Each structure stands twice: as structure tokens, then as C-alpha cells.
Amino acid sequence: MKTHVAAAFQQPLDPVAGSLAISAILAALPLLILFVLLGVFRMKAYQAALISLALSIILAVVGWQMPVGQVLSATGLGAFYAIFPILWILINALWIYKLTVATPWFEILGRTIRSISDDLRILSILIAFCFGALLESLAGFGAPVAIAAAMLMAAGMKPLKSAVVALLANTAPVAFGAMAAPIIALNGVTGIPLQELSSMTGRQTPFIALVVPLILVFLVDGKRGLRQTWPVALVAGAAFGLAQFVASNFFIVELTDVVAAVVTVIAVLLMLRVWQPAEIIGMTGESREAEKAEAAVSEAGAGTDTLTGSTRGAGAGAGAAGAGGAASGGATAVGGDSTGDPGGGSSADAGTPGNPAPGGGGQTAGARPSRREVWMAIAPYLIIIAVFSLAQIPVIKTWLTSIGSTTFHWPGLDVTGANGKPVAAQTLRFDHLRATGTLLLFSGIITMFLYRIAPRSGVRVYGETLKQLRWTILTVCAVLALSFVMNLSGQTTTLGVALASAGGFFALLSPLLGWIGVALTGSDTSSNSLFGALQVAAANETGLSPTLMAAANSSAGVMGKMLSLQNLAIASAAVGLEGAEGTLLRKLIGWSLGLLAFITVLIWLQSTSILGWMVP
Prior knowledge:
The protein is mainly α. The chain has helices at about 20-40, 45-65, 70-100, 105-115, 120-140, 145-155, 160-170, 175-190, 195-200, 205-250, 255-275, 295-300, 315-320, 325-330, 370-390, 395-405, 435-450, 455-470, 470-490, 490-500, 505-520, 525-540, 545-555, 565-575, 580-605; strands at about 10, 280, 285-290, 405-410, 415, 425-430.
């Protein structure tokens, strides 16, 4: 029985002057204003988001005639969803990162990464593309961007470039991310068999995977990077795309990205055994001959570690310098002081009995890390993988769901669509124990025990994390509130129906619809829930394949994730550059639109006799 009391509201399709076209133009205004304020006027993200939210509220009340009480309730629902699960994930992911910075193992992580390759172009593939895909498969919702960007900085990449690379890499894996949550959501709203949707999506996203590594090396080093490292980039893209196709078509859909990520890492490491680029591009952009790179990695030099106070080599020093962007943005050692004391006298300090400084036992600090040091340096990420993998075991997953999940109708809302059916968005599934953010919190606590970080220090770091993210929290809450107001008032539906009225030309507009959905919500899962049924209805009306159009919503939608304000805010915060959302938007919008055009052409060809044989 419903416990809420609200006047029923049915979404109108053409509320303004009885014109679908005029209504659609007005519905698009909040989104247009958001991007213009960010990209053209370079306004701060939270200010642009609040202005767009205010406009959408006015349109909902005046244009779509939604009761004021329900508009405010929809705003509250969006803000709550922003906090849990999205910000809950970001806060705990960034907290884990800051815990690692509080110990000497963060420095070892940078040396460990460079021990694989000292070339930032190759590291961008291994970290942002491969490891980011693995994190996307397990967590999603911004965690891969935050963690991959931090790891790139640990390897010596500049903060802004780290954010750009991490955002662009988070494309090809997204459709199967979070244990295939977007595909499962698409199955739920369309009724199309899960395997059929998985197979179709797996015949689209591999083409994106093929080109993304090539773009990454271009972003890192321009034409020289593309010219010198295209072989390994091509191998990475081909391995990921092929593995994604095989897993999504013939294996378990939930494990598609896990399989693809692992296969790609193996392929890249095998490639590096027999091939190296002509020059090595290090963290400062300098080039070196490849045959001298290995000696440079282990070459010890003068310097003092900002975290441990111990001497270190040139390779380690570069890593510390590269992580300096984090220090400027607040992602420093827990003490946060200029001396670099990591724990303010707590057990997080380097060299204490509970947490001995790495590189001991007679080993030079600048040398390659020992096997034990490597395992300790990557331990937080292994813990994350282990915790999320355990949570996916059917028995544990069922138990967590039974005690850690509840579904309820959001109070103050009674919204039906134009078809008279209740809108699904007003029913909230609240996962607490089994939420991604909660699992990250557990991972962080385990990391504290492993690294011997005192509880007081861990709590202090958590407080510093919240302070660092204060504007990000406001930004994401405003954007999700905007999304829910547009969705529940009917503005989003009006916009979608206007695009679907294009007839056979809809095959070219369908990907755009998915792109808009992800750019707005920051989630392929949310976009599929928002537009999946609409895509199928439009496909049936225009004679196109419902499976193709539904999959297109997901496959093309992922190109918009790099532009979503939530992910821009997450990336900015992760690298310590709060307020850089507009800069990131301007750097990425061209790549996003280019990839959208590429996938749109592919989907259009699949809707014709040319590539129609690819549709299951």
C-alpha cells in the first residue's frame, strides 16, 4: 500500500501550445544552457548546474503543469540518488586513494607501474584502458575514472592530462560495466531477451574499443605517440574488442568486461616482451632511446622522498613529482602539512614498526621494487577486486540483497506517463550493505588494517575527503536533481518522442538519444532505463529492429559519459583540480562527438542490408 499522498500527475507530451516541436525545444533548454555555461562562459560547474536546475523546475511547473510539491519532491529524489549511490562511491573511492597517499606505498606504486614500462603512452593503455575497464566491470559509477586518474598521476602524468585520459578511456567498457548493469536494465524495460541485447551490444562496442587506445596515445604524445606506439595500441584495442565480442555473445554477460580487461593486459604484456617503442616518453615529456629505458628506471639518484624522508632514485622522484597535482588539490598525506609527514605521528608514518619503510633490507630505494613491495603497493586495488568479486558470488549476493536492500516509493510523487502507467523513476531501490560505495568503504577499512593506519588517522582523512569534495557534492546533487525533474515532469519524454518522430531517419537519431541520456545522467544504466522502452517503441513504428535500436542506446550512450557533469566533477576532484570541469569539457567534447559519429555510422549500416547480417 502506498504511504505517500500526492495529487496524480500525468506527463503531457506536447504541453506548450500543443506543439511537440516547441515543447521539445524548451525541454532541451536546460541541457543547452548547462553546456553553454560550462563550455563557453566557463562558469563553475556547481553554478551552471544550479542555474540549469532552476530553469528545469520553472519549465516543469509552468510548461508541463507539474504540481509544485511533486516538482520539489522530484528534486529531492534526484539529490538523494546523487548522494547514494553516486557520491557514496566517489567519496569512498577517493578516501582509499588518500589512504594510500598517507603511506610510503603510494610512492612504490608509481615505481611499480613504471617497472612495467617507463613510457607514459603505454601506461595510459595499461592503467586507464585495461585496469580502468576492470574497475568499470566491478564498480562503475565514476570509481574507474577517479582511481585510474590517481594512478596515472602516481606514474608521473600531469593532473589535467590524467583526468582527460581517464575520462576518454572510460567508454568502451561502460556498456557492460558494473556487472552488465546497463544491459540488465535494458532487458528490464524493453522485455528483449538479455542474451539478444548482450550479443547486439557486443557487435557494436568492440569497434569503439579498437580505436580508443589509439586516441589515448595521441592525447598523451600527439602524432609522435601515434606513430611510435600504434602497434601496442592496436593490439590492446583488438584484444579488448575480440574478448568483449566473444564474452558477450558466447559467455556470461556479467563477466564481459572482466574477461576483456584480463585478456588485454596479458596481450599487452606479451607484446612488450617482443616489442618496444623507438623512444621512451617519460613523465616530463622527454624522449629517450628505448634500449636505455630499462637502465633509467633502476638508476638511483639524489633526492628525498616527500612521504618517507628516505633517499630515492630518479624514477621514484618523478613519480612523486607527478603526484604533485594531487598535493595541490588536497590529495596529500594525511597530515596535509608541507613537511610531508604522512600521518602526523600515527602508525601511518613510514619507518615505524607497524609500517616499515619500503626498500629496506639493504635494497636501494631507487631500485625496482621487490615482489613484496609490489604486492603491498597494489594491495588496495587487489582488495577492491576481491571484495567486489566476493559480493558477486550468488550465495553472498543473495544474502546481501536480503539484508542490505530495500525498495520504496518516494514520498510526495504520483506520476504516470503519457500511456497512463506509473513512471518507474519514482520507485527507488535503496541498496545500503551491497552498494558499490559500501563495498568500497569495506575495502578502505581492510586497507587501513593492512597498512597499519590508526583509526583516528583514517577518520581524519575521511573528513579531509569530504572537505575536498564539497563543491563536487553540490554539483552532482544539482545535476541529478535536474535529471529527475526533467524525467518525472515529462521533459525528457517529450524530447525523446520528438527525436523518434523522424521515421526511418531515426536510425541516425537513436544513438544521439542514448548519448544525451548518458551525458545528462552520467550513467548508461540510467539512460537505458530512461530511453530503452522509447527506442523500442520508435523502432516498431519505423520498421527498424527493436534489438538494434535498444542496443544502440547503450553502445552510443557511453560516448556521452566523458561529458557528463558528474564524471567531469569526479575526475576534477580525483586529480585535485576542483573547478576544472569546463576545461575538461572543452578538451573532450570533440572526441565525444567524433566517436558518436563513428558509432552512428556503424549502427546505421547495421540497420541496412550492408551490415544487417550482424543483427541477431
